[in-house]
Amino acid sequence: MTTAPLPPELEALIPRIGRTHLRRRLGLEQEHDAFAFNRPGAHFFYPENWYSVHGFIRHALRLVGFYQRAQENTRKIRIQPHRLLIRGLPEAFVGLRILHLSDLHTDLDRRITTAIAERLTGLSYDLCVLTGDYRAKTYGPIDEALSGMASIRTQLQGPVYAVLGNHDSIRLVPGLEAMQIQVLLNETAVIEREGQRLYLAGIDDAHYYQVHNIDKVAAEIPEGAAALLLSHTPEIYLHAAYAGFAAMLCGHTHGGQICLPGQIALFWDARCPRRLAAGAWRHGEMIGYTSMGTGSSVVPARLNCLPEITLHELVAADARGDGAR
Fold it and tell me: N or C terminus: fewer CB in 10 A for the chain?
């Protein structure tokens, strides 16, 4: 089997993720492009690529008089504090603050990206995590998405860790890492404080590309160590819980983005229970949090579901799973 040579910046990923993962990801992206451009009927579950759907949503919102408000809502970004209870949390990490951004879609509407960058000003935290979807479409160029990410990166402090989402190409990785954003492609980072360790694992997209490898990242973590998992989607919650992770941070759902009053999501595009579609949740001993999304997808519009920047504060959980006093 002959294949085209890889660009040097992608060849550099092979020692980290292996040639098979890289070629598989790139191959699936090419197949995805073919569906998006040539076979729209076969691309049923990806309305973000349907221009007719974009138009229908805009027209429907205009008819009911909500379109202007829905557009303005995309730029009303909430700061959402959250206490993240972690079993086995080393004392040195109690009170650690994690800034969580998700689903930035930086090339959808420059006004939203500008609003995100402005909202980040003055926030205090120790590290930042990004849970995927930096591009608006699920195919095509990446330059505008990287430009948007660069404008947001200038407002971020401390170390920044990221995973890829179903909208993202692996071709984004060299550009993101040139901005000092460490992309975890089925990899684990070790955070050290006062001689103690917290493990931060990140998996590649499990929603569309399904190139995630929980076994690999879990194998890199000592038994009983406190470990957090970054995943674009909550769909792999069962695997993550039984792999022993204390917590999982994710996004993808946008909380529904356009919801009924009471924040009732009509659609969250994830094969998981509704209770996992937004905010805090638990499965077994694992704590989870699904971001409502910092940006917007398909169309720049939100109803009854404001975007969020999440500030997690780590708290040691006692034997019952409650916050230690």
Answer: N
Residue 235's SS3 state is: helix
Query: What percent of the chain shows pLDDT beyond 90?
Result: 70
- By residue count, the chain amounts to 325
Closest to 172 (Cα-Cα) out of 6, 9, 5, 8: 9
Helix H or strand E encompassing 33: helix 19-38
Phi-psi region at 195: left, alpha or beta (left = phi > 0; alpha = psi -120 to 50): left
The DSSP letter of residue 105 is: -
What Å distances lie between residue 288 and 122, 143, 202, CA to CA? 27, 32, 14
> What pLDDT digit, counting tens, does each position of 271-308 carry?
888 889 899 999 999 999 999 999 998 889 998 999 99
The closest of 259, 314, 319 to 125, measured between CA atoms, is 314
CA distances from 22 to 134, 136, 221 (A): 19, 22, 23
